[in-house]
Amino acid sequence: MAPSRCHRLLLPTTMAPACLALVLVLLLALCAAPAPAHAARALTPGRAGAVTKAQQGGSNATAAAADEYLTPHNQARAAVGVPPLRWSADLASTAAAVVAQQQRQVGCAFVDMGGSPYGANQGWASYRARPAEVVASWVAQGRYYTHANNTCAPGQQCGTYTQVVWRRSAEVGCAQATCAAGATLTLCLYNPHGNVQGQSPY
């Protein structure tokens, strides 16, 4: 696997014609910075309402939203024996700025995180996806990953899974933006970044 590059995967869900409005198209991407010396992209904060309650500071609602991201991350990490992640308000704030800018300027397209010092998992859904659901889609890539030889099944992507369970990553912060027609863009940032080429995640 070449984990220092962005991993993108399109997963169309087949549904009956009557359910076309609910079609789920989930794109998964992982971009780990090649070296932590690169500076993060300077981004302007989003408009009010562009991001979910997970990014609004200091309230009980914020803690509950953070738990929606943390719980599935830490369940996946516990399953392979690595320490839990801590929530980072700073990373969440950075993620909120990124998704707000993407929502405002480029219609919720994925952002190129190659110049960031952080690891990044991104997801897009055609409907209002819950945080735990998005994280679960990243974790689901684990079925294609073989730890014994640190490889991904041919034709599959494992990068979002290996970032979720990367042993050296200690903290995470996430944000979502609601896009046109109710779609959702999700971004989680990880520090230190994972997916270092030639290293095993755990």
Automatic annotation (TrEMBL):
Protein origin, superkingdom: Eukaryota
SCP domain span: 64-198
InterPro entries, sorted: CAP_dom (IPR014044), CAP_sf (IPR035940), CRISP-related (IPR001283)
Assigned keywords, A-Z: Signal
Signal sequence, renumbered to the chain: 1-39
Keyword Signal belongs to the record: yes
Alphabetized SUPFAM superfamilies for the sequence: PR-1-like (SSF55797)
Pfam family, one: CAP
Protein name per the record: SCP domain-containing protein
Lineage, opening ranks: Eukaryota, Viridiplantae, Streptophyta, Embryophyta, Tracheophyta
